[in-house]
Amino acid sequence: MARVGLSLLLISFVLYMAGMAESSVARHSSHKDFIQASCKATLYPALCVECLSQYASAIRQSDRQLAQTALSVSLAKVRSATAFVAKLTKVRGIKSREYQAVKDCIENMGDSVDRLSQSVRELGHMGRAMGQDFTWHMSNVQTWVSAALTDESTCLDGFNGRAMDGNVKAAVNRRVTNVAQVTSNALALINRFASKHRAATVVEKP
User: Fold this and answer.
1) Does the structure show a pLDDT above 90 at 99?
2) Residue 164 near residue 101, CB atoms below 8 Å
3) How far apart are CA 88 and CA 165, in angstroms?
4) Cβ neighbours of residue 192 under 8 Å, at least 6 residues apart?
């Protein structure tokens, strides 16, 4: 009898754990669905999903957390790209015009890092800001992220023209274009969060 009771207890435990696991998978799936749906607002949805899916459990279904994570991912990628571009100044046989374009690009990317860092801090400090406070903070973030995107585009502009064709240009274009797309996605998700927040605020007003 005791053995039967123990068996029933063991079966119950196994079923409970299986239920918990299934529930966890379902939650994770719904979080990923939220990311996929949100990424449709971006210019590069596949890249957006690729960059953010691994953070699904942290993002859950929060528009704020989604925007914050997208911004942090963008900052990390810009920092990595800046370090990569800096190494190109030491490439053997680099031409003087390529060297100058790379140096200018490093400066542009450094500016982008500064602006995105400001944006991450600003968004993190917003807390539960409402009304004009929310608008002011969000306006700062949108302005800085837009400027960061311009910095990244300016880096690429420095390699325009056939005279710049070569391995250095190809390497910069490949890396910085990807970064600019990630930053563009982050800006789109920030704009989406701002719009949804304002719309919810209007609905809540009596």
Assistant:
1) yes
2) yes
3) 15
4) 38, 41, 63, 67
